Amino acid sequence: MHPTYAKLLERLDAGLNDLLESLSGLTDEQINAPAPDGGWSIAQVMLHLMVAEELSVKYIRKKLSFNPKLEKAGLKAALRRLALIGYLKTPLKFKAPKGVDATSWSEPVPLEELRERWLKARAELRILLEELPSDTFDKELYKHPLVGKLPVSAMLEFYQVHFERHLGQIRRQLAVVSQG
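^ that's the sequence the OP posted. Answer follows.
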């Protein structure tokens, strides 16, 4: 695995482990309780983050299966990366893309199922990163639905900033369900 990927993945894993630990004492009802402001439940936020990761890995695997000619990530990809990260760091709310929005998950999901699925998704990500040919490091291999093609390192940065953005949402909901 490329050292840059390893460092970014280590940070992602630490965040996920901390999150799962902070939720370990909650009931399935608490995890699935809707936010009082009409926002997503903790389970829905977790599914949103996890499915974004799962779909990214599937996209890259499918793309690589065609042995595509990949463009080298240059200035345009760097600007797309900055736009995406900047966008996620704003306090503005925006609609999630179809397939990773809360309407995709209306049924309650047990915390243990969420934990197992996310850890499996993260293991799949790790395998993908270990298998990626070294000549793909600086190539536009990942495609974000909002900004377009980016290198895998930018995908991992997106995961981190995306996770941090939604962690605040989870913490607010955690405070609400812990009082009830």
